[in-house]
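look at this one:
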Amino acid sequence: MLNHDTDIDSLPETLEAVFAGEHDLIANAANMAALLFQTLPDVNWAGFYFLQGDELVLGPFQGKVACVRIPLGRGVCGTAAQERRTIVVEDVHAFPGHIACDAASRSEIVVPLIQDGRVLGVLDIDSPIPGRFSPNDKILCERAASLLLESLRRA
């Protein structure tokens, strides 16, 4: 069923297999965080924050202990959720208002999870390498996020 040696090119198909028959957001987000963390090279954190009121609250993740609550509009995650757009940051130290949960993180990509016009949360991936995330990584992460959202629709 699952290939534990998933490569980046087969990540979407692997996610579809993982999500098959499961519609729970937390369960699928947990497996997706683990898969992204194991598959993407040079990543030190991969996970989710879910919108509750006017703040993002920590969800399933892989990596070091993280910030639990992020106000909407603050940091990369809060900004991506508020602006409803993917943000790729080459150097987090240059991002105004960056929230440093792990001092080792140098670059970051955050993809908002938007379903039926509503922001559910964000997918957040960090790397200790500046400029780690390419345009192809952006496409891959947005595709992964859309597969997660599709898994909820099949319920």
